[in-house]
Amino acid sequence: MLTKKLQPVQSFLSLVSRSVGHFPRQHYDVIVVGGGHAGTEAAAAAARLGAETLLITQKIHTIGALSCNPSLGGVGKGHLVREVDALDGLCGRAGDWAGISFSILNRRKGPAVWGPRAQLDRQRYREFMQSELLSTPRLTVMEGSVEELLVTDPNPEQPGQHRVNGICLANSSHPISASSVVLTTGTFLSGSLFIGQTTSPGGRIGDAPSSAGLSHTLRERLGLKVGRLRTGTPPRIVKDSVDLSLATLNPPDSSPTPFSFMNTHTRCRPEEQLPCYLTYTTPGVERVVRESLHLNCHIQQDAKGPRYCPSIESRVLRFPGRRHQVWLEPEGLTSDLLYPQGLSMTMPPDVQLRLIREIPPLHKAEIHMPGYGVQYDFVCPTQLSPSLQVKSTQGLFLAGQINGTTGYEEAAAQGLWAGVNAGRRALSKPPVALSRTESYIGVLIDDLVSRGVTEPYRMFTSRAEFRTSLRPDNADLRLTLKGFELGCVSSSRHQKAVRVKNSLQDALAALQALSLSTTSWKRKIPDVHVSEANSNMLSGIEMLQYKDVSFQVLASIFPEVLLPFMEFSQRLKIEAVYRPHCESNKREIQRIQEEENMSLPEDIDYLSLPVSLSQEVREVLHRARPSTLGAATRLEGITPAAVVNLFNYVCFAEKRKKTSHGNQRRQKEGREEELCASLPQ
Amino acid sequence: ILVIKCCLFQGGLADADTIFALSSGYGRCGVAVVRVSGPASATALRSMAGHRLPPPRTALLRSITDPLSGEMLDRGLVLWFPAPHSFTGEDSVEFHIHGGPAVITAVLQALGSVPGTRPAEAGEFTRRAFQAGKLDLTEVEGLGDLIHAETEAQRRQALRQMSGELGHIYRDWSHKLKRCLAHIEAFIDFSEDELIEDGVLDQADRSVCDLQSQIEQHLRDERRGERLRSGVHVVIAGATNAGKSSLLNTLCQRPAAIVSPIAGTTRDIVETAVDIGGFPVLLSDTAGLRESADLVEQEGVRRARERVQQADLTLLVVDSTCLPSDVQRAAGFLSEHLRNMCLLVLNKSDLLPETQRQKLKMELRGVSGLPAVCLLSCQTNEGLKDFLTVLQSSVKTLCGDPLAGAPTLTQARHRAHLQQCVAALSQFQRYRDSDLALAAEGVRLALTSLGRITGRVGAEEILDIIFKDFCIGK
């Protein structure tokens, strides 16, 4: 996969720019607004599904830009990358193409929480994304700025008060219509940039601000509740000006592990990888922060920033008198810049320079571009359904930072899922949801739509209840087959996943069949302490659960049975160890899935529902409008009695509907019989 | 590995939990019905009431035993309802047992020890019946109200318990466990990028260890449950010829002990089981306490003293005609030997003139350090009613009052959850060094089990602790 040549981007650019003046179509199935991590995945997914898709972005050459840190994955985030890849998304393969330093975080803490992560070459990542998008069938990429959404009356047969059926571009009188519109505007929705005491409109330095019209439409026309969040990015530092001998070298894994299930190796060769460096803040840093607080607008604002990725200012203010970690990360194979992870800051540029020079390896450092803060609008995500469509507005989907999340991976995951559902809507298929019992994407979306956000939302493994089942190693088994049914997975990936699934099943069956007494096992593997207390038979799977027994060891004892499965040795070891825990998760997962399968009609009027519910419960349900019974049970203030009453209502409402249909049919048949009877014989 | 195999076995066998609960009302009743529903019902029936399953839907009289200890708990009717012909549509079992709280609690606790079973949540039987399509619309409409009533009752019950000492203990555990989990989660989610001090995990190790032993200790120490199973131990003690054996016979309403005017008639311990106010009581009559040259009587006195030490409640019988000098001896005896609950019984009141009876009552009530005093006559039964009231309330206090919301039943539920909690904590220990994710899973399970008593703990709450305790920001 990685040996393929990227399509020459330049020729596509000319092709597209030609189409900008007099674009061939006035209608698309899906329009995606924004070319960031959410937008690229959304557009690609919709196109894979078979929808004619248009991606509109301000500048084609910023598609796939890494606005902040030059890295992908990590603990929890790596899970998302693997899942996006399992659904045939782009970011995993892009990471394998652009990665220049790979490591599996949490290597010693158990495979369920391993965090695949890579430092990226910014240039290569953009190249891959642009090439991939510009060569995707059914996908058109266009430069432009969206001025307005086309809002019309809703389709009365579906729930919702409005319908979006297209967009209007700035500087163009021609609207473009579409069945679905996906907004992935990132930090550009009413975005403002902060450095020191200056503020300017925009979502990223160097890019034009998005139009105020869009924000206005969402708020005023569609009546969506909007909040404000903030984030920031550190200054970029000239590599040559840094004394790396004063920092601790942190080498990558000696053998890089690819993100994608489709790749056996990464583009970057192991020996080509670049290391990261670790250093620490000093008391001088704290002093500079305190002295410059009055010059720092961003930090004085009360928009909510993330607790886990705070600026150096908030870190120092919240935990004074401590030293804080600063990672110096490469920006690319040939880049002459370093990215100081942990030094996001918004003070005036001259103070930024003073601050970083308080850190020993940076005592002579030069700043290439200062850090800055961004404040932006987000749409409260409780107004979305699990398909990421706005509940009140047919055809409008939101993904990424506009939903209050932070992080490339979180954006990519939502983008992919919004793209799938936008495509399905255009193809007249019902919306689909991922359960929190089957994926981190499901956890992410369920958290967003059922709880909302109070600060930028980031994925952690601690958010997943079924962490031992939702592992990075088995994302393909969990999602690829399902994705294929939905149409967002290519047949080559599907075939591979089926082969893997069958091989793993065969291998586990073979292991299960290897049943020997403890004494025989002891004779065969003398180094391993097989518990004496267990006098009965032990299967190969049970042996594999022992810490020091690897699949390789078993394969060397039973080569004829096990050698064919050597390529899966690591996955088999993990499967064996986690199996009992996943089994015990199963019941709970089943219960939750049953409840989630019971959907609550979107147009249900909780305030007047003829069901015994307290006023308090009615109001909670009215506000949150859970889409399933499962989501309702997770709401605060919902009593078990209320759940049962809702459950009854839903079941009997369905039954009543069915019987009334049945009655009508019977009546009709009856009339026909009468008719027949009255005919002359 | 053994545990893992058990899990596999259960996982393969059971799709859903097997639930059990007392289906008849709380409090004193002639017959109590305990219902079990789910795939492990047959296992429960076999392990508690004989290995052969009775024919379907036929009542059979069986001995009901504890599956772990083999101890007989009761004799009662058992019924076996194989799926789908049962109330819930699942395999079900009913135990019709004697209605005392001791028996009920014992049977519920025994059921809790059968693998794959757990106490039912409010309304769960009805809900299962509904899901299996066993209820019609009118029945179902009442279900919400029923569950509402049950959860209300549980809530009130929980509130009562939570404001007490027990609640304090549970909350403290829950708090410790939350912090412990938060620190482990912080180590998992952030330690690769952030400064999470190495000591964090060691601290978690210590907390888990402490909690585990505290909860185990608590489960062992819970004398109340045992009292209910084997009855409250009430020991009758006192000087020779005070009328101890007469009191025993009066209480059990039969001549269980030999009564004679000769001092030292009772030499060994005479035990008899009686029902006092619906509670099982094991009543022991002991040899009169006096110095004796008789070896047999010496041994009797030694046993009497030993029994008094182990008693839940001592009835100190004094011959009221021997007062006042006897009061001094009684007081001395008290301070010397009795640390447990004690009632002072002044027997032979019929031999006292009316004026002295009144005087005695008044005087003794004022003496500090003396327990409750009852004046009665085993001969004429005078004062017996008052004595029984006092005795009953003491026994009730020792067992918990089922009419006040059935704490014994809640207790059985708590016990089951605490046992799960301890088991889950041992999973942490087992995986601590090999797989922190699986170890953390143990702490999560422990917190879920404890959360069933103290309230659910969500991921956000854990994250709040993480961000409060650690400076995380890359």
UniProtKB/TrEMBL annotation, chain A:
Coiled-coil positions: none
Give GO MF terms, alphabetically.
Answer: flavin adenine dinucleotide binding
Name the UniProt key words of this record, in alphabetical order.
Answer: FAD, Flavoprotein, tRNA processing
As cofactor, the record names:
FAD
- From which domain of life does this come? Eukaryota
Asked if the Swiss-Prot or TrEMBL record annotates the protein with the keyword Endoplasmic reticulum, the reply is no
InterPro entries attached here? Answer: FAD/NAD-bd_sf (IPR036188), GIDA_C_N (IPR049312), MnmG (IPR004416), MnmG-rel (IPR002218), MnmG_C (IPR026904), MnmG_C_subdom (IPR047001), MnmG_C_subdom_sf (IPR044920), MnmG_N (IPR040131)
Residue ranges of the region described as Disordered: 660-681
Any one Gene Ontology biological process term?
tRNA methylation
Name the SMART domains for this protein.
Answer: GIDA_assoc_3
One Pfam family assigned to this protein is SAM_GIDA_C
Q: Where is the tRNA uridine 5-carboxymethylaminomethyl modification enzyme C-terminal subdomain domain?
A: 576-648
Q: Does the keyword Acyltransferase apply?
A: no
The record's Gene Ontology cellular component field reads: cytosol; mitochondrion
Family under the similarity heading: Belongs to the MnmG family.
Return the protein name: Mitochondrial tRNA translation optimization 1
Per the UniProt record, the source organism is Nothobranchius furzeri
Q: Which gene encodes it?
A: mto1
Automatic annotation (TrEMBL), chain B:
Where does the record place it? Mitochondrion
Lineage, top-rank taxon, reads Eukaryota
Q: What does this protein do?
A: GTPase component of the GTPBP3-MTO1 complex that catalyzes the 5-taurinomethyluridine (taum(5)U) modification at the 34th wobble position (U34) of mitochondrial tRNAs (mt-tRNAs), which plays a role in mt-tRNA decoding and mitochondrial translation. Taum(5)U formation on mammalian mt-tRNA requires the presence of both GTPBP3-mediated GTPase activity and MTO1 catalytic activity.
MF terms from GO for this chain are: GTP binding; GTPase activity
Q: Which GO terms describe its biological process?
A: mitochondrial tRNA modification; tRNA methylation; tRNA wobble uridine modification
Domain TrmE-type G, by residue range, is 231-396
| Record keywords | GTP-binding, Hydrolase, Mitochondrion, Nucleotide-binding, Transit peptide, tRNA processing
Catalysis performed (reactions): GTP + H2O = GDP + phosphate + H(+)
Swiss-Prot/TrEMBL cofactor(s): K(+)
Entry annotated with the keyword Disulfide bond:
no
Q: Name one GO cellular component term.
A: mitochondrion
Family per record: Belongs to the TRAFAC class TrmE-Era-EngA-EngB-Septin-like GTPase superfamily. TrmE GTPase family.
State the protein's name.
5-taurinomethyluridine-[tRNA] synthase subunit GTPB3, mitochondrial
